[in-house]
Structure formats: structure tokens, C-alpha cells
Amino acid sequence: MSEAAESGDAPTGREIWIEKYRPQTLDDVYGQEAIVERLRSYIERDELPHLLFAGPAGVGKTTSATAIARALYGDNWRGNFLELNASDERGIDVVRDRIKNFARSSFNPERGYTIIFLDEADSLTNDAQSALRRTMEEFSDKTRFILSCNYSSKIIDPIQSRCAVFRFSPLGDEAIANQTRDIAEAEGIELTDDGLDALVYAASGDMRRAINSLQAAATTGEVVDEEAVYMITATARPEDIEEMVQAAIDGEFTTARKKLETLIVDTGMAGGDIIDQLHRAVWDFDLDERTAVQLMERIGEADYRISEGANEQVQLEALLASLALSEN
């Protein structure tokens, strides 16, 4: 929980909770204990290398970077920390201009270096990454780089070899449940057990999604329960997904198709979201191994075709039809 929230100094009004409750120190980061321990040792020994944070959204990469800056520079951390989003400025000019100018002009006499944090670094072009690598070499005596990305494979090897690589995993259910429960208590929200379970399920390892969903659901009434969460997140209940798949496996294609139409039209789900939920739930279904593998194969085909621009409903109906036909 943030210092502002604990001290009561947070500004009043309708705030964005993901910022209001963003952890201020490494000790407050949920669910990444092994990574936090290693980062803390760098700070204690004052031997911070270049860092590369890789992992999905909402798992603590940006929070860890700002927490490092706060720990090193205290209240003056903003003056010693340049944050850039590479997805906004992904060309070579951002490296030659903003990054190089900050690295050249900034200096911290106490630590001997300042920090440049480059978020979504996997969006940089190869030319920009090559220029970044040269900048890292040239200013390594007074600048440390922290790069954040979803896919480390998109970062060129010369940069990876210059960084200590940390792979952030999706957050566990317990970590998400603990923070959402803490926020609900701090905000005076009545959060039911089934509502908490629904938040954890809808988040799928993404803390930002869980907190945003909690804030959105809290606006619908005095109590945040399962119904409020599934309504506000346009997420299907796991049992609805299972019933749809089971109907197809049983050869009842018309029933399965109606359930799919309910998810798309009434619940408002996108085809990609249904694919994600199907993928997450395959091994939770009571299926024999052959059928489960077959379903995974169909999910992969539908996901690829949807990502290439095919009609979502057509592809999902084809998925269900293939399951129905395979059992007949």
C-alpha cells in the first residue's frame, strides 16, 4: 500500500487507484519476492548494474524501477530518474536526442550515476536498439539503464548481455487477493468472498487489471460481489465457458452456439477474451487427455486466425463445430 494512503495524505476526490496504491518501496511490491530480494541487495551494496525487466503487464516492472529510484535518491528521485515510453517514441531519434542528452548532462555526486528507465523497450526498432547499446557503453560511468519489456526475445543480444535480466512472472492468486483486499478495506468497500474470487479470476495475474476492476465495480453499488465484477469486466463465469465447451463435445452444437452468442452479445466479450478464457480453463475441464489436446489445437488455430483479422464469431463457431464433429 502506498505511503500516501497509509498516512492519510492522499488527495481527496475520485482518484485512479492503481496510482494511489502503487507501492512506493520494494518491500511493498506484491508477489515478486525473489526478484525484490536481489534488487534490494544491489541497492544495499550500491552496485546497481543495467537492468532488463521482462514479463507481462501489471506484474510490477515499472513499480520496481521507480522503487529503486526512491531507495537510491530519496525525495530527489525525480531529478535523477528519466522515464520514457518506447512505444510512443520508438525511433532512433529518441535515443540520439532525449536519452543521450540526459545521460550527457545529468550527474548525481552522491551515487555517481543517474537512472534512465525505458518502458516497453521491445517496441524500439533495431537501429534504435543499436544506438542505445552504444549510448549504454559511452555513459556507463554515470548512467544506469533499466529497460522494461514484455518479450525479452525482441531485445538485441548486445543489450541483453550488458544487463542483469529479471523475468517477472504473472502474479499468483494470493498476491492479487491480498492487495485487492487491502485496498477494499482502505476504501471502506464491502468485498464479498465470491467477489474477491471473481476479481482474481478476471485479473489473470495482472495486478493493474484487478485494481481497476475493483474500482469500477465499486461504483455500481455498496457491495462488490461476483455479479458486479463479471458485469463490469465483461468476463464470463468459468462455468459458462465449461458448459459451452461441454455442449460442443457432447455433439450439441446448437446449444454450444447459443451459449457463445450469449457471451458475445449479452456479456459483451471480445473473441480474443473468450479464446484467453478457453485457454486458461482447458485443464480445469473434466476432459480426457486426447480431447483436451484436441481442444488446445483448435484454440491455437482460432487464436491465430482472429489475430490475422478473421471474423471472431465465425472462428469461434468453427472451433465449437470441430469439437462437435470430432465426437460424432
UniProtKB/TrEMBL annotation:
UniProt cross-references to Pfam families, sorted A to Z: AAA, Rep_fac_C
Matching InterPro entries: AAA+_ATPase, ATPase_AAA_core, DNA_pol3_clamp-load_cplx_C, DNA_Rep/Repair_Clamp_Loader, P-loop_NTPase, Rep_factor-C_ssu_arc, Rep_factorC_C, RFC_lid
GO biological process: DNA replication
Protein family membership: Belongs to the activator 1 small subunits family. RfcS subfamily.
Keywords carried by this UniProt record: ATP-binding, DNA replication, Nucleotide-binding
Name of the protein in question: Replication factor C small subunit
The keyword Magnesium appears for this protein: no
GO molecular function, one term: DNA clamp loader activity
Organism: Haloferax namakaokahaiae
Taxonomy of the source species: Archaea, Methanobacteriati, Methanobacteriota, Stenosarchaea group, Halobacteria
Domain AAA+ ATPase: 47-173
Described purpose of this protein according to its UniProt entry: Part of the RFC clamp loader complex which loads the PCNA sliding clamp onto DNA.
Cross-referenced PANTHER family: REPLICATION FACTOR C / DNA POLYMERASE III GAMMA-TAU SUBUNIT, REPLICATION FACTOR C SUBUNIT 4
Gene that encodes the chain: rfcS
Binding site for ATP: 55-62
Domain of life from the UniProt record: Archaea
Subunit field text: Heteromultimer composed of small subunits (RfcS) and large subunits (RfcL).
HAMAP family: RfcS
